[in-house]
Amino acid sequence: MKYLMTVLLVLSFIKSEAQDQDSKMTTGFFGVEMKDNKKDIVGSPYIDANFSQYTITGHKTNDVPSLRYNNYSDQMEYMKDKASYDLDRVNNMIVSLRNGNKTYVYLDEYFVGNDSKSGYLQVLLSGSKSTLYKKEAVIIQEKLVKEDVMDVGKKIQEYSTSKPQYFLKLNDKVVAVPQKKGDFNDLFTDNESKDFIKKNKISSTKEQDLIKLVNFLNK
What we know:
Elements: H1 2-22, E1 26-27, E2 32-34, E3 54-57, E4 68-70, E5 75-80, E6 83-86, E7 94-97, E8 102-112, E9 115-125, E10 130-135, E11 138-145, E12 154-161, E13 165-170, E14 173-176, H2 181-185, H3 191-199, H4 207-217
Antiparallel strand pairs: 1-2, 2-6, 3-7, 4-5, 5-6, 7-8, 8-9, 9-10, 10-13, 11-12, 13-14
């Protein structure tokens, strides 16, 4: 009887391990198949969860009718045989989604301060001398939910859209736009650009101001 119980415990452990492995990412034929491990998180990892027709340059896709951008995982996703896959990423490939009329570029390297990162950036304005990008990320936050003032509360996790972050391509380097005025001015070495920023009261946090600046830089 003791031997039988030991065997059952071992089999139970093996089954548990197999299920745990199955909940992780598995490699598919076209990319990486994504398992849904975040069902208990409130909200959505997408700003737009709809799949869209698209055009792509710098990369070839086969049997991929539509894509969507996952703002949490920073991946382009597609469906195949009722499973979700991440599109393979190639440096400088450009994906234009018709829904929302948004264009993304994948970069092997861009900078936030001194930190080197990689991922998708939305192209807002492209030019020969400078380009303006935008990053709209979704993050997971923990919050305490209470039904009344006497309730001790329950901690939940939810998806939350962070503030947009802007990037500039200057001298073939893509860098995050600093929010501090002094750091923002230090991005530019020429007096003409600094005078334009001062004269037009360009804010490093306002999208329309940055578009105006990039139009000036590309003249």
